[in-house]
Amino acid sequence: MIFNKLGKTEIKVSSIIMGTWQAGRQMWADIDDKETTNAIRKAVDLGINTIDTAETYGNGYSEQIVAKATSSIRKQLIYATKVFCSHLKYDQVIKACHRSLKNLKTDYIDLYQIHWPPGSFGCKKVPLKETISALNFLKEQGKIRAIGISNFSLDEIKEAVLYGDIESLQPPYSLFFRYIEKEIIPFCLKNEITILGYSPLAQGFLTGKFGLDHKFDKKDHRSGSKLFQDKNYKTIIDAVHRLKPIADKNNISLSQLALAWVISHKNTCAIAGARNKTQVEENVKAADIKIEKESLKISDEICKKAAAFLDNDPVIWKR
User: Fold this and answer.
1) Which residues of the chain have pLDDT under 50?
2) In Å, how far are 90, 97, 99, 146, 209 from 139, measured between CA atoms?
């Protein structure tokens, strides 16, 4: 496993991070808590030291699942969680942090992130200075060790760094979703802000499990993803088919190719969820496999062209 320095801190985060958006029955009807718990434990056994969650994942249930799986070895791990845009007033941030501390059964959070910028999803637009002031207070109190942001535009990032030490940015980042490459990644590298890319498998597209005739349940969370809209779907599927021979040539799966591409970038990690131990094992292997540079370059070109319609869009979800 490769480890990256978190921003300007001395915290080391694994290049593959265990994502827990899917954890808890409240969010996914077909996921068993025991399997999720075992998957998280397996991730730790295989070298992942960082687990990402949020107060909104299952209304805190994901955080509880993380605690159930890892509280006995908490000191070995990096807990990353998030405060939602509906809780960004000073006092709300403090209360939300305490709820997450309780859910995670810990007395400190390693990385506490603003999940969405003020004003997202119709939330009240709280001044960013007020929110980060609360995060600075929590840091001074030892309740959190580092501050991160998620889904922020370049202008929002530039404002955030005026008010506190921002150590990480969590944006959507994959072979298909490249918005951050033009201006945001250069800014983050210059300012020592680590990229924690979420959805590195593009909501499952880069596993190769979907075909043109695949039918999605009406309740499927991907219904809000721009990649899955009718006008884009075939273009993306065609690109995935062109990636398959590249993965085969390197004796790896499509998902491993996708993850390896993300973490091949400087100071960049990939947040990968897993429903079971088998998926965890496959994800972790991506951190250690050696892929021809030419293969990464060709994959890059195929997907960048296919997903050009997303170039000017900062988020993958409708909001």
Assistant:
1) 319
2) 14, 11, 16, 7, 43
